[in-house]
Design a protein that fits this description.
By secondary structure, the protein is of the alpha/beta class. It has helices at residues 6-13, 17-25, 43-52, 67-78, 82-94, 98-109, 115-135, 141-158, 184-195, 209-219, 234-251, 279-289, and strands at residues 3-4, 32-33, 39-42, 171-177, 199-207, 223-227, 254-258, 274-276. Helix 11 (234-251) links the parallel strand 6 (223-227) and strand 7 (254-258). It is elongated, with a radius of gyration of 22 Å.
Length: 307
């Protein structure tokens, strides 16, 4: 049975903690008290109270899930315990359920969870599991491709719902290096930058090194984000990265590299300014490198957001 603290229950019902405690003391919401005197609420009781009093649980209408899955989702969000949400996300991805993935991402987003957290603690772990199951032979390559396509479509549909800051005058190019086709992580970084006010040119998968150099010289971006997930010929990769690095140095452009296998290289080996191990890490580097502030956490209804 899932139990919530007074603070967690208050977030679910979008009321103050003192209100939750008062309702519990008045017997309006059932709760149990720990030996230390802390109130604990069953999630099912919170949902029953909300339904009986015409209240909507924080985060809007939940996605169509079984009762057990819905309890797991709400606990994962309010605990917070995001690996439970990642497990649900994985289930939807392996079914190729584009609508289910979109509704799940939208529901999580409307609980004011930062997109970088969603990317790092929900999408990325699910993607890693999909890859692991494919390598182990648990799923066929067609199912792996379908899962990736479903996640990508859900993210694209989510983009208009995300809350962006005002333009900050900075421009970034996001691309996968030559021979790299996995772009969900890159798309996550592109969205995270857009939310911070960046203008992002999303070039996408398998971009030749020469093309990146020409594109950078043409638009003169402040930042280039490159993604690599597959281990490739290190010598060829180093040569290509050196070519890009020479161009970015002459332009004063920062070079950020990320991806599933990026941390198996050193920044010196990749001729880059920083290797981002997560979206959150990449954002922290960017904020520091360009003297940016995180800004206030989005609040209120109507939350809107743009691998």
């Amino acid at each position: 049975m899932t139990h919530l603290s007074s603070e967690q229950a208050a977030r679910v019902l979008d009321v103050t903690v003192s209100t939750i405690k008062r309702w519990a003391d008045e017997g309006l919401i059932a709760c149990v008290k720990t030996p230390g005197g802390h109130r604990k609420f069953e999630l099912t009781e919170i949902a029953r109270f909300a339904e009986g009093h015409g209240m909507r649980l924080s985060g809007g209408t939940p996605p169509p899930l079984s009762e057990h899955q819905l309890e797991q989702l709400q606990f994962g969000i309010h605990a917070p315990n995001y690996h439970r949400v990642a497990d649900l996300f994985l289930e939807e991805a392996l079914q190729g359920d584009r609508e289910g993935l979109y509704q799940l991402l939208l529901y999580v987003t409307k609980h004011h969870i930062r997109f970088a957290t969603i990317a790092d603690e929900i999408i990325r772990p699910a993607l890693a599991r999909v890859g692991e199951e494919w390598h182990q032979g648990s799923i066929e390559v067609a199912q792996e491709h379908e899962a990736s396509a479903a996640i990508t479509e859900a993210m694209i549909r989510l983009a208009p719902e995300l809350l962006k800051k005002k333009p900050n005058g900075l421009t970034a190019v996001c691309a996968c290096v030559e021979g790299e086709d996995h772009e969900i992580g890159l798309r996550s970084m592109a969205y995270a930058l857009e939310l911070e006010g960046w203008t992002v040119h999303f070039v996408g998968a398998d971009t030749p090194f020469e093309t990146l150099v020409s594109f950078a010289k043409a638009i003169k971006p402040h930042l280039i984000c490159l993604s690599l997930a597959l281990t490739r010929n290190r010598k060829e990769l180093a040569q290509g990265m050196a070519m890009i690095s020479r161009a970015t140095r002459s332009l004063g452009t920062k070079l950020l590299v990320g991806g599933y296998r990026a941390d198996s290289f050193s920044a010196k080996e990749l001729h880059c300014d920083h290797i981002g191990t997560t979206i959150g890490d990449g954002l922290a580097y960017v904020r520091d490198a360009f003297g940016l502030k995180p800004g206030p956490k989005p609040k209120g209804a109507g939350l809107r957001v743009s691998r």
